[in-house]
Write the structure tokens for this entry.
Amino acid sequence: MIKLTKLRWVIAGLLLLATIINYADRLTLSVVLSEVRKTFPLSEAGYSHIVVLFMVAYAIAYAVSGYVVDRLGTRRGMGVFIGAWSAAQMLQALARGKWSLGACQFSLGLCEAGNFPAGVKAIGEWFPPELRALGVGLVNSGSALGLALAPPLAAFVTLRYGWRAAFLFTGSLGLILLLAWLSLYQPPQQNRWLAEGERRSLAASTAPLAERAAAGKAGGSAWTILCQRQCYTLFLARFFSDPVVYFLEFWIPSYLHKARGFDLAMIGKYAWVPFVFGYVGYLGGGWLSGRLLGAGMTLAKARKSAMAVGALLVPAAMLVPRAPNAALALAALCLVVLGHAVWVTNLLTLPADLFPGTEVGTASGFTGMGGALGGIITSLGIGFVLSHFSYTPLFLCAGLMHPLALVLVWTMLPERYFEGRG
């Protein structure tokens, strides 16, 4: 049988593609929203209700998806979620009104959350601590690429074939990925594509995380994991910081349309630009903490220092509504997305740094639930604020959340929680 060299990077590439498709799927509705409104009425408040349905499902799924991945294993768990969210995406082509579209978005949210606990668990199985943040950064750079690709792709398909075709096309990409995932993925100890020399090297560098995952030993109960200081601190950090990126995902195309006068063609042409900086931030954030580790910093200080760099860029959000033209507003958004990407790359890596391998998926799922709950609350508030005021107070709040979350992580997770991990 053919053996693949550097298979860990092939696995990371599959996870990258999964994240690209995951984010392209969720952004499609916001891109084609103006065309959907030509088919059936959908107010700003009505759209916010649909976003809340997605976020409620996302929060529910995040709470359980990590546990499911820990029990099913990374291969089967990720496969279930990819297939399910792709089907939910394609079903949106059948929507006939607000509530049918909302039901499809709810289904999408239930299925998409599993991508991230599974991704972090897979990186933990294949990457040693010094490469782990870079691996997570590479995988999560797919969110920036998905957000960057969705506007031109969805706009192109919609302008030629209608908005329903955009959902069918993006959903079908996930089904193709599913076949590749099931063909290639197994943990290093069981993977038939992995050369024996590389298998031994990986076993030495990733133990005990991969070995315990492959052995299928159960971790602690979900409640026990949630009650640990590491878990509820990361839960709160994501509760405050994740709503910023949810705001960008679901509302920036609408902001460009309403506040800056962009039509669908202009959204397709320009809305992707900030998310390219997210791609740079995901890779750069992972590289930065790895470089700090290599320079002699402890694991805790390296992760926190990289997170601080990102968190201090996000307040550029306050400049967006005050920018005198659309170009400067987009420039400020670029800094926001860059900062969030550096921040979240290292934040998403922390469960693999702080928990044993059989608990990484569950812990990652709970922390993601914190971000989704924050997204639910802010989505309800966004609809109200836009109905009565403007985007200005929303961007002001967005600029404050990451520094607040940084203080929380820095003070609540001292060095001793990282000792003996990785």
Summary: The chain has one domain: 7-417. The longest helix spans residues 7-39. The radius of gyration is 20 Å. Confidence is low (pLDDT under 50) at residues 208-218.
